[in-house]
């Protein structure tokens, strides 16, 4: 499963040349991640009420072309890999008007509790784990 979220680049996200500041891509990854979970029927807020947190433990971004003020952007989000207490998400940032790949990135998360201790998510939330694994496998096939 892949989630596609559309946004428009706001003026405040750009520098004086109208080019998006590089740090904003990580904000867009967060938007994509939240929409990905929402589309699956489980918001990040819901997981937190269940005592599950997903802190980012690693992230990266490869910038290919610049996004600019007023561009319509598609944030593609999908599960790259899910194993043990880790979840890896992949993001593509695409300019809508010409379908040009502007950037690709990733975030790696850990399933932890409020005390930041690893949680056996597969055991505690088997139904959600199975849905996420299904989404992961759909993208591989």
Largest sheet: 5 strands, antiparallel
- Global mean pLDDT: 94
Number of strands: 5
The residue fraction in helices comes out at 25-40%
Principal-axes geometry comes out as: elongated
Rg (CA only): 16 Å
**Residue fraction in strands:** 25-35%
Write out the strand line-up for the largest beta sheet, numbering strands in chain order.
1-3-4-5-2
Describe the structure.
This protein has 4 helices and 5 strands, in the order E-H-H-E-E-E-E-H-H. With 141 residues, the protein is an alpha+beta fold. Strands 1-3-4-5-2 form a 5-stranded antiparallel β-sheet.
Give the helix/strand layout.
Elements: E1 2-8, H1 24-40, H2 44-49, E2 56-63, E3 72-83, E4 86-95, E5 100-110, H3 121-124, H4 126-140
Antiparallel strand pairs: 1-3, 2-5, 3-4, 4-5
